[in-house]
Amino acid sequence: MTLVRPFPALRPATGRAPEVVAPPYDVLNTEEARALAADRPYSFLHISKPEIDLPADTDPYAPAVYAKGAENLQAMIAAGILVPDDVPCYYAYRLIMGNHVQTGIVAAASVADYDTNRIRKHEFTRPDKEDDRVRQIEALNAQTGPVLLAYPNAPEIDALLNAATQAAPDADATAETGVRHSLWVIRDAASVARLTALFDALPALYIADGHHRSASASRICASRKAANPQHDGREAYNYFLSVIFPDHQMQILDYNRVIKDLNGLSEADFLSRIAANFTVEEADGPVKPAQPREFGLYMGGRWRRLHIHPSLVPTDPVERLDVSLLQNYLIAPVLGISDPRRDKRIDFVGGIRGLAELEKRVDSGEMALAFALHPTHMEHLMAVADANQVMPPKSTWFEPKLADGMASHQI
Predict the structure, then answer these.
(1) Contact by Cβ (8 Å): 362, 370
(2) Averaged pLDDT of the chain
(3) 90-94, 120-124, 156-160, 271-275 — which is least confidently predicted?
(4) How crowded is the C-beta side of 29, counted as CA atoms within 13 Å?
(5) Pick from 31, 30, 11, 29: which is nearest to 21 by CA?
(6) Residues 283, 214: one domain?
(7) What is residue 60's three-state secondary structure?
(8) What residues are paired with 90 via a beta bridge?
(9) pLDDT of res. 126
(10) Boundaries of domain holding 92
């Protein structure tokens, strides 16, 4: 078995991609999905969020929801909106968001290599979220939500994917967010074989987003393998849908923090306490940290710039992350928030919303202060995964997001 392999994708028919592609299932709630899919009968949301086609009070995890998704998928195939390729292919996939461009490959990635940690993880998963994806994939008999992966430095892969994008794309759509999604089919046998060999020579791939989707694929593979006396490892369920980009092209935005109160401290006492671990400088405008170990603090209508004392930065790949430094040396000891996963006094704001969102949350009185962080780097994420460790919660915000519906993997 190879690390990745080509597959015959189920994808929008020629010219239908703008009608089909939709945001990932997990970035919208039901109401948002229903509004976005209104008057769009072929939106992939009818497959990925099928509760929108059922009564408003329907439990999104009810068996009827998964059945409706399968029904909608078959209807779109019957209508010729979604069409499977006749031979296994790879697919070059390009995302353009403003000036940012990244070009990767849609491929089926090995469950066996996921199970042995050659496809490396950096997050814990929740059983309830895994259960949801298992039920969805089993109902559809297809993986429709791609796992976002990164591959380490491989110039020849980059060059082959770039060469594949020189013609007009086979599918092209611009999402409501303004992100452009383009897909090129790679059918040439020599290119397919070379890409397979080049990926197989890599030491590892890295999950950027999609830990629950990959974990659910592993569970389904195990159950189908156990139930199949003819199992030989070549079945489609031995692989999962993935989009793999070069690590140097991937974009991680800042993931900022807002806090409800000062833990009983006055502003003066709070600033005095944090000065034990950070230098604090007044700023004349919003502070967007330009480097690791630098933080912006917004409180009382004023911005300040913080730098953690260098002697406090450890060598451990998790503990040296900016999110860990802020948590361990300020948020926990000074603000009393020791469990950011569960404490209701803290919230998280993706960098896509900008620093103005932090000011808004504080100036409204909803929050008492906000912290702006420097984005986590891909090399830091990969170092954590290589060490078989787990990233702290809300460490990475990848942009742009993949679209659902550009390619699905039938199993």
Answers:
(1) yes
(2) 96
(3) 120-124
(4) 2
(5) 11
(6) no
(7) coil
(8) 186
(9) 87
(10) 4-251+399-410
Residue 86 sits in the same domain as residue 138? yes
Amino acid at 409: H
Do 27 and 182 contact (CB within 8 A), yes or no? Answer: no
Helix axes 127-140 and 63-78, enclosed angle (nearest 10): 40
Q: Is residue 391 part of a domain?
A: no
Cα(281)–Cα(387) distance, integer angstroms: 35
Per-residue pLDDT reduced to its tens digit, 245-300: 999 999 999 999 999 999 999 999 999 999 999 999 999 999 999 999 999 999 99
CA distance 332 to 202: 39
The tokens for 131 are 């259960």
Look up residue 150 and give its DSSP letter: E
The 10 Å Cβ neighbour count of residue 150 is 24
Is 352 strand, coil or helix?
A: helix
Contact status, residue 189 vs residue 90, Cβ threshold 8 Å: no
Same domain, 237 and 259: no
In which residue are the tokens 């919003």 written? Answer: 286
Tally of structural domains, the chain: 2
Report the pLDDT value the prediction gives residue 342, as an integer from 0 to 100: 87
Could you tell me where the DSSP H helices lie in 201-332? 211-227, 267-274, 322-326
Tokens of 26: 């997990």
Confidence of residue 341 (pLDDT cuts 50, 70, 90): confident
Runs of H (alpha helix) within 51-153: 63-78, 111-115, 127-140
CA distance 102 to 275: 41
Long-range CB pairs of 75-81, under 8 A, 24+ apart, other chains included = 76/20, 76/42, 76/46, 76/47, 77/10, 79/42, 80/13, 81/12, 81/13, 81/16, 81/19, 81/20, 81/42
Q: Exposed, middle or buried by CB within 10 Å (0-12, 13-18, 19+), for 80?
A: exposed
Q: What SS3 class is residue 317? A: coil
CATH number for the domain that contains residue 345: 3.30.1760
Which residue's entry shows tokens 């239908």? 16
Predicted local distance difference test score (pLDDT) of residue 251: 95
pLDDT band at 148 (very low <50, low <70, confident <90, very high): very high
Q: How many of the other CB atoms lie within 10 Å of CB of 398? A: 18
Tokens of 100: 């940012």
Instruction: Give dist(CA 142, CA 129) in Å, integer.
Output: 17
Nearest to 74 by CA among 153, 141, 29: 141
pLDDT tens figures, 37-69: 999 999 999 999 999 999 999 999 999 999 999
